[in-house]
Amino acid sequence: MAPESNLPQRISSWIRERVREAGADGVVVGLSGGVDSSVVAALARMALGERLLGLIMPCQSKTSDIEDARLVARRLGIKMKEIPLDPIYESFLEILPPGDRLTRANLKARLRMVTLYYYANGLNYLVAGTGNKSELSIGYFTKYGDGGVDILPLGGLLKTEVKQLARELRIPERIIEKIPSAGLWEDQTDEEEMGMSYEELDRAILAIESGDASGLTSEILDKVAEMMKASRHKRQPPPAFERQGKMH
Fold this sequence. Notes:
Blueprint lengths: L6 H16 L3 E5 L4 H14 L3 E5 L6 H14 L2 E4 L3 H10 L5 H23 L1 E3 L5 H6 L20 H10 L4 H5 L12 H5 L3 H13 L7 H13 L18
Parallel strand pairs: 1-2, 1-4, 2-3
């Protein structure tokens, strides 16, 4: 899929308009050292100039990811703060009952959300999420973790499109080509956890949307359709009981 020539300008204008509508003064974004957060930071820099804060929030994170996040902040010339979350994460684990690997990983994502909103509240900023359409479609995010945001600049772009946009924005190639990982645990990779490559996932999403499944196996299509169905609750507001009739 060929990139749209004016896509960076369109998304940056969209960010600027969402900030204006909210009566906010800027945005805060979590920098993970990955391609999605790097692209969001670059677009927000285009949109808002100095009214952007990047937060690096290591929590049992790889040193290389922290270095890549710092690199992006320096390249973009944005304000940046590092908030190591290891001590608070370990304190939580001391007082909570034992949890499995995924439960502990989700705790990391939710601690980052809390930190982002702490800074956002203090600055009157919005929290810019880094989720893309591929991940949002199948629920590959933590509810009230990395899914707890105010705006999603990449919410309409598939992962393969984000990588194309990253090259247009001159994001360092080593970040674009690194194996996608949410850093949830040691050696964790997105594609291994999803059970397919991003290319396969994106083709399946397009096939489901268009109704043209040519060239795709039914196994992948069925799996993606089931993931979409199972994660629907993560993309919708919580259901609220509605009282019938008038109150007396």
